[in-house]
Design goal:
With 155 residues, the chain is mainly α. The chain folds into two domains: 60 residues, 434 Repressor (Amino-terminal Domain), CATH 1.10.260; 71 residues, no CATH class. Helix content is 60%, strand content 0%. The protein contains seven helices and no strands. The protein is elongated and about 55 Å long. The chain starts with 5 loop residues before the first helix and ends in a 12-residue tail after the last helix.
């Protein structure tokens, strides 16, 4: 298990603000976090503060702490639900565990990329529209009605 590094935390946060194209203090202020919070000792930061920093940077708590490889449960649940809906639109013989797993992974990757790029909306209706579009795209791809070419059902 990695050891906490305050210097690495500060660098990670500064780099993320740069990636988002805004000064860190502006991003933090939008979440009600003081501009000097990142410079303070970790002992004075609560989980709630770290969650606010995460929200400001369009990250989850794991990414702020330095574990970006951990899965985002909310996005995984949304992807799994979408994968289930996709399978209901396919022929029964195509409704395999492999296809469900692949659909889940593909949708999760699309959602996590959107979130990291700052393109994951907070509005529930907008999120539902995005998921519906991804579902439609995958169903159409399975049936071979897109520019990717025909797909064959999983064996």
């Amino acid at each position: 298990m990695p050891v906490w590094s305050e210097k690495a935390f500060q660098q990670r946060v500064a780099l993320r603000a740069q990636q988002l194209g805004q000064p860190l203090k502006v991003l933090l202020a939008q979440q009600g976090v003081g501009h000097d919070t990142v410079q303070r000792n970790v002992g004075s930061r609560s989980i709630k503060t770290l969650e606010r920093i995460a929200a400001a940077l369009k990250w989850d708590l794991a990414e702020v702490i330095g574990y970006p490889g951990l899965i985002n449960r909310e996005l995984s649940w949304l992807a799994a639900s979408a994968a289930e809906r996709i399978l209901t639109r396919l022929p029964e013989d195509a409704r395999t565990l492999d296809l469900r797993t692949q659909a889940h992974a593909d949708i999760y990757d699309l959602l996590i990329a959107r979130r990291r790029e700052g393109r994951w909306p907070t509005d529930t209706a907008a999120r539902a529209e995005i998921l519906a579009a991804y579902e439609e795209m995958m169903v159409q791809a399975w049936y071979g009605r897109d520019a990717i070419g025909p797909k064959t059902p999983a064996a």
